[in-house]
Fold this sequence. Notes:
Layout: H1 3-7, E1 9-11, E2 15-18, E3 27-28, E4 34-43, H2 47-64, H3 70-74, E5 81-82, E6 101-108, E7 114-115, E8 131-141, E9 147-159, H4 170-173
Parallel strand pairs: 7-9
Antiparallel strand pairs: 1-8, 2-4, 2-8, 3-4, 4-6, 5-6, 8-9
Amino acid sequence: xTQAAASTKVVTxxxxxxxxxxxxxxxPNDKGIDKFGVTLLIPKSDKVTYDKLCAANExxxxxxxxxxxxxxxxxxxxxxxxxxxxRPSDGTAYSKECKGHWVVTVASNERPExxxxxxxxxxxxxxxxxxxxxSLNAYYFTGTNKGVTFGxxxxxxxERGERIDGRTSAADDFSEF
Length: 177
């Protein structure tokens, strides 16, 4: 593997998952192509992961775009959003779960491998609100917009969290019976 290719890969620290159902059931993107995906809530305190995302973003920009001022290459990745701010898509505030986090939505044409903390295949599904790590790869995209985004690699569940999708478990629903 070349040094440039290695620098575009990122393995996150512990983050929280949102829209986790898309890890198992693909959703069509704006072009109608089915994509597997998940939204990552990366704590702003995780400077290591944030720095890795910025370094991968810079590596891709330097490889694909030449002749720009140094600030262009050092800019925060466009697809890493501030959960304390507003959504770039419609200007509405992010939900309370996003506060204090970087929000990164990632997708893939292929279903990711999902493993437990020991890297064994996970038999149960990951839920929105659970915590884990994700491998990502930065790449350049063009079209209506252009820039760097991150593709979804593999997913590791580290611990279960309080669900943030409003669902309850069957055990909880029927516990009184």
